[in-house]
Amino acid sequence: MSPIESADVVVVGAGIVGAACAEALSAAGRRVLVVDRGAPAGATTASGEGNVLLSDKAPGPELRLALASRRLWPQLLETLRAELGEDLADVEWESKGGLVVALHEDSIGPLRILTEAQREAGVDVQDLGQGAACAMEPHLTRAVTAAAHYPEDAQVQPVLAATALLAAVRARGGEVRGGTEARGLVVQGGRVAGVRIGGDAVPCGAVVNACGPWAGHFSVAAGAPIEILPRRGMVLVTAPLPRVVGRKVYAADYVAAVASGDVDLRVSPVVESTATGTVLIGSSRQRVGFDESLEVEVLRRLARSAVRLFPVLKDVPVMRAYGGFRPYTPDHLPVIGEDPRMPGLWHAGGHEGAGIGLAPGTARMLADLMDRRRPEVDPVPFRVARPALMAEVRT
Amino acid sequence: MRVVWDGEEVEAREGQTVAGVLMGLGVRSWRTTRGTGRPRGLFCGIGACFDCLVKVNGVPDVRACQRFVADGDDIRPQSGAELPS
């Protein structure tokens, strides 16, 4: 491979967030180089379920970013189709809707309070009783006490989506390099002048830290540490089944599990099928560092909780299981913006389990900020200089 | 021991896999694909490819190459994606 000469922006990390940022920056006319120490879209992006969700977010900055992202996704896919053609731009986008179900009498109240607040914030959500929920999902347990339907919840195949975004970057003259590790910054006059790749220094005007769960590591190497931690998750996959689950279906306590800061294992059932018919069963959350070992107890609890939602799954064999790491921030908000300690260094990450859904809004915000335009969504809550990201930082 | 293949009783030996029994009967294909209904049978033989799926005692998606037969097993061909019966 020829040496990389220079770029306007170097994006470090070729997961969905890095790919979306690179796409938005190249659309704004910048020459973008994307590097990833592994394969593009090969880590966290390859380990998720492709969630594009409004349902699991309570009103606040993240929901505003999610609403903007949900509007942007179809536009982005339209752009990709026009530039790349149908085949490359086919990313299994399904606007399938989400169904949140309460399984106890005492979860009905909290669910209704959440949906009421979400409706006021602009989310399309309908409150359903047991009958309507089971009519929507015929295999759903009759133990459902109440449900909420979110027609805007969607799903995308995240690896295909990231790959398509990177293909657009290349088509516009950008470059994508896998197996290429950025080891730190080149700093001149107190600001970013380049990035160190192997033994080379690649001159550039800006660097975007889109390293997902490893964003903390890169931030340390870049001399401007932020607190981003890995939060482990595991998924069970069945063989392709006839249509068992139409929407993304999950228990109402999932919202609380997402928002919790627990170090200990939390399991909350999330069940959905993919375009090929396999059923994905999540979700678990654990803070165990980058420990990749497979824990049978976690898998067992996932299976058990999925059968509670869909009893028909009881005798369905599991084909495989996989795990990954979500990028976790202590205050549960993504970080999007320039690092005040190091002009020219930008961070885009910390989306925990919502990175696929939030990628377009994140990318748009980053590109707007870089162009000194006012973003559609207020960027202040996502700024780098906030206590949760800086307070616990090990320097 | 005896097992049932597609409704007929057949001989099987302790320690044989379902795939072993079917191959011994000269059966080369026991599943059809869910898209175009093409025939499938043993491919990798080591549990990795999920091509040799078969229905055993009402449970679909059983890997014939990994499942040891038990006396009285009811083994049936699988067509496409099926749910447990």
From TrEMBL, chain A:
Organism superkingdom: Bacteria
User: Boundaries of each FAD dependent oxidoreductase domain copy?
Assistant: 8-369
List, alphabetically, the Gene3D superfamilies matched. D-Amino Acid Oxidase, subunit A, domain 2, FAD/NAD(P)-binding domain
Per UniProt, the keywords (alphabetical) are: Oxidoreductase
This chain's protein is named FAD-dependent oxidoreductase
